[in-house]
Structure to design on (915 residues):
């Protein structure tokens, strides 16, 4: 087992190197200039932009810049933002709690909705409940978040005036009130994201359950006289969850990566909005750091998913 | 004749022999209107009777929180590194200049005890030096006194090339010396009619020497104060999250009486303009939102029964179509639009004039920009004394057709006009931006009627406005026949705004397209007028020279003005902000208050 994990980690190194190289080259080839704002400003002489480019090493050839970046990264230096003139890790750490809170809650909500609904729908396929759940699920994942987000704002903020639609990171309250305020401002984005996720996940859980429910060993379990609940939880779900675990594990990096569109709509200062503003401002060190960390998380969670398979299904052995 | 009479009369007013009112009465008797008479006084060097700022609060604080919403978030808080308006606006909450520009484009003293003038001896007669007197007893937020040393240091800091400050151009051609603790003298290399650039407005923010002294030059980026400012302004720094939020609290030691009104200030960033307008006008979650680049139709709808409204500030920003005087389709020495070529179609002035006749400015104003724009024939639209009255514009397809027919452009079999085998086909480029694409469509339609084929091209703003030498689609390279964009006028003086088109600034491969004269237009009269204006210290003659420059550009149809654009903000109904079209939105923040 530990040997397996070690081997997988070693394999991860070249793939991460490859990912970083591709990211770096693509970003270097992309048009745009982090100091383009300066170029459009008639007050700023062009020399300033050129001096800044030189200062931040933008005029070096791409391979040199990549090597510099790689060496710094291995030493834990994530780079220096051109735009904010501060260390990238600080910038990311500042955004992380909000992202984890909002996106994490949304994922949790999605799971809490999708698993019971999916399981119950699979237990009674084509029943009224299943029909309604399926219809809602289709509606749910065919409505994009930018649409539902704006719809929610129009209904709950503009018409009813119940909830704020601009997210503030520092709420001036303590104790219970602080908690309630946090909840009040996060409720719309969490709903928007959570229900969107839940919709597709419900379908997925239902399908996985139905696949297993038809198998012979379930009939055997029933024939043995086991109760419905026991059959479902111990026999069906355990096996049906294997593909679901993969799905969840692959979605975990997104919890750290944030949700670009939703964060933009509700002005949530998360990683997603950091990424999009950095891309727009051509702040390559930040874009590079965020995407690379994201890539690392994908690799890591894939590994975790593989390890979890073994636990869920002892037939899978690690070699 | 009249001019000399006028001069003596103005001098009489200056010396106090004739009072302002008597002067204005006499001018009115001569057939001038009152505003014109005051204008003559103003440009003749007599300070305008300043309308007393209508600041009502009678005590400091007690106004609760002030919540600002900027849809682009500030990313750093050093005014000398501010890459965009958002950063200047945020820095200006904490730092202050000697003076700011008020609503009419006049100087309003902030840290200066008085505005320098010839009368008070602040301005040298030869235009080569300015002496500023500082307010006594002003303290930085950490309690240290504010002195002339801070100004001298700020000048050294900004001019050090290793600092790479964006303000270097403002401070470069001068020396700043300390006369005493509360007096500084700025010396210019040559007569400088527009002396109020250094230490004024957003670029004039003064840094505390005692904190920044060790972070000058190459070490500038390490200064912790780039993100945690210790300033002098009405609000003290509390917290900054780059790309998200800036917070401040009332400075109880502020140097102006009864100011500021608000107890705390918060500037939230991010999102988009429409929802920012919504948060102010419709739900009232925020008090002020900046730069409402939203269609007027949407704003009008939000304003119906809302909690806020839009406000407009007049500056000199101009949205226009620029004509290429060189050939964008012929490559010379690896460069298109080379100055060695002539534009095949635009070398005929009739074609340029016809194009100007084909832009339906009224339609663009009415259907696209609404209250945020004014139609104009001029490239230079402010301040008032620099605006030409000699120009006019008109939209008429018939006249354009007549003009083209007259100079021999006849319609071919496909309906497109041609002459000597050259077809009237144009490529019209601009950045991707809703209103601009609509303007393109309106112009294309009118051109079609006149037998001109226009191909439209829109380029992502981050590419179009970039200085990327490798990219062919930048606005400086101008590889098209015409292009549209906006040039902001960042100060109430036309020098910088007009200088762009001097022939020595032509954008070429040689200067890596850093030149500002994108049309590659060369006109000797224009060059001479610019050179003369830059050294002219007589305000009347100087204004006349800039009007002449504007008129030459109009005569030659170098640009076709689309609209004179106004600054738009969204504000809660109870708020009283002071927003100037000549300054940053936060430049007069100390005077903001709320009606209770």
């Amino acid at each position: 087992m530990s040997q397996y994990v070690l081997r997988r980690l070693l394999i991860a190194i070249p793939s991460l190197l490859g990912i970083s190289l591709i990211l770096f080259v693509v970003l270097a080839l992309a048009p745009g200039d982090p100091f383009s704002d300066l170029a459009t400003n008639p007050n700023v002489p062009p020399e300033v932009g050129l001096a800044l480019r030189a200062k931040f090493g933008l005029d070096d050839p791409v391979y040199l810049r990549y090597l510099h970046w790689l060496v710094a990264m291995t030493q834990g230096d994530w780079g220096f933002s051109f735009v904010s003139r501060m260390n990238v890790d600080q910038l990311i750490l500042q955004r992380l709690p909000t992202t984890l809170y909002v996106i994490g809650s949304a994922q949790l909500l999605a799971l809490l909705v999708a698993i019971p609904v999916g399981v119950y729908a699979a237990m009674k396929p084509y029943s009224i409940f299943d029909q309604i759940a399926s219809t809602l699920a289709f509606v749910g994942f065919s409505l994009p978040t930018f649409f539902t987000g704006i719809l929610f704002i129009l209904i709950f903020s503009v018409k009813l005036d119940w909830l704020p639609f601009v997210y503030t990171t520092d709420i001036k309250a303590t104790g219970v009130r602080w908690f309630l305020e946090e909840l009040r401002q996060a409720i719309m984005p969490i709903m928007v994201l959570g229900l969107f996720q839940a919709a597709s996940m419900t379908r997925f859980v239902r399908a996985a359950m139905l696949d297993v429910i038809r198998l012979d060993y379930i009939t055997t379990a029933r024939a043995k006289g086991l109760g419905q609940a026991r059959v479902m939880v111990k026999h069906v779900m355990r096996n049906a969850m294997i593909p679901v675990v993969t799905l969840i594990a692959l979605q975990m990096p997104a919890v750290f990566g944030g949700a670009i569109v939703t964060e933009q709509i509700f002005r949530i200062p998360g990683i997603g909005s950091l990424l999009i503003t950095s891309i727009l401002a051509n702040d390559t060190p930040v874009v590079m750091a965020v995407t690379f960390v994201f890539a690392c998380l994908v690799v890591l969670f894939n590994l975790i998913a593989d390890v979890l398979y073994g636990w869920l299904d002892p037939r899978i052995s690690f070699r | 004749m009249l001019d000399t009479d006028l001069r003596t009369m103005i001098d009489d007013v200056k010396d106090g022999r004739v009072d302002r009112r008597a002067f204005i009465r006499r001018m009115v008797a001569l057939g001038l209107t009152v505003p014109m008479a005051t204008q003559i006084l103003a440009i003749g060097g007599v300070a305008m009777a300043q309308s007393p700022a209508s600041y009502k609060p009678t005590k400091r604080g007690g106004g609760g929180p002030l919540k600002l919403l900027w849809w682009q978030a500030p990313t750093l808080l050093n005014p000398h590194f501010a890459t965009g308006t958002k950063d200047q606006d945020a820095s200006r909450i904490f730092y202050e200049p000697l003076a700011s520009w008020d609503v009419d484009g006049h100087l309003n003293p902030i840290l200066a005890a008085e505005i320098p003038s010839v009368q008070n001896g602040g301005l040298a007669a030869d235009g080569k030096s300015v002496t500023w007197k500082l307010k006594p007893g002003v303290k930085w937020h950490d309690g240290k006194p504010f002195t002339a040393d801070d100004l001298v240091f700020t000048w050294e800091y900004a001019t050090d090339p290793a600092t790479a400050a964006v303000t270097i151009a403002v401070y470069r051609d001068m020396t700043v010396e300390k006369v005493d603790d509360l007096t500084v003298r700025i010396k210019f290399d040559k007569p400088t009619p527009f002396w109020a650039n250094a230490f004024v407005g957003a670029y004039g923010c003064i840094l505390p020497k005692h904190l920044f002294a060790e972070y000058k030059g190459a070490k500038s980026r390490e200064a912790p104060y780039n993100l945690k400012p210790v300033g002098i302004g009405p609000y003290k720094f509390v917290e900054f999250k780059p790309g998200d939020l800036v917070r401040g609290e009332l400075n109880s030691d502020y140097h102006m009486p009864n100011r500021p009104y608000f107890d705390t200030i918060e500037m939230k960033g991010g999102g988009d303009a429409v929802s920012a307008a919504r948060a102010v006008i419709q739900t009232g979650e925020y008090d002020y939102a900046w730069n409402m680049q939203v269609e007027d139709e949407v704003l009008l709808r939000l304003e119906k029964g809302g909690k806020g409204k839009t406000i407009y500030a007049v500056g000199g920003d101009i949205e226009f179509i620029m004509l290429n005087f060189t050939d964008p389709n012929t490559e010379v020495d690896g460069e298109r639009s080379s100055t060695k070529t002539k534009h095949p179609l635009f070398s005929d002035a009739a074609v340029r004039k016809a194009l100007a006749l084909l832009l339906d400015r009224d339609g663009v104003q009415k259907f696209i920009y609404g209250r945020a724009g004014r139609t104009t024939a001029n490239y230079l639209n402010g301040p008032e004394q620099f605006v030409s009255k000699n120009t006019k514009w008109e939209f008429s397809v018939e006249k354009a057709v007549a003009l083209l027919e007259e100079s021999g452009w006849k319609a071919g079999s496909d309906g497109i006009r041609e002459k000597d085998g050259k077809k009237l086909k144009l490529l019209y480029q601009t950045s991707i931006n809703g209103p601009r694409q609509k303007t393109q469509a309106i112009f294309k339609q009118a051109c079609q009627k006149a037998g001109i084929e226009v191909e439209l091209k829109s380029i992502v703003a981050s590419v179009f406005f970039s200085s990327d030498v490798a990219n062919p689609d930048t606005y400086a390279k101008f590889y098209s026949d015409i292009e549209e964009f906006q040039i902001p006028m960042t100060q109430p003086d036309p020098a910088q705004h007009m200088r762009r088109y001097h022939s020595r600034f032509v954008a070429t491969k040689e200067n890596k397209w850093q030149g500002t004269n994108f049309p590659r237009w060369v006109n000797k009269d224009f060059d001479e007028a610019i050179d003369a204006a830059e050294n002219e210290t007589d305000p009347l003659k100087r204004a006349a020279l800039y009007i002449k420059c504007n008129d030459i550009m109009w005569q030659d149809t170098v640009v076709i003005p689309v609209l004179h654009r106004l600054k738009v903000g969204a504000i809660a109904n109870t708020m009283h902000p002071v927003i100037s079209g000549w300054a940053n939105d936060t430049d007069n923040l100390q005077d903001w208050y709320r009606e209770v």
In short: DSSP finds 17 helices and 23 strands in chain B. Chain B touches chain A through 59 residues (CB under 8 Å). Chain B has a mean pLDDT of 88.
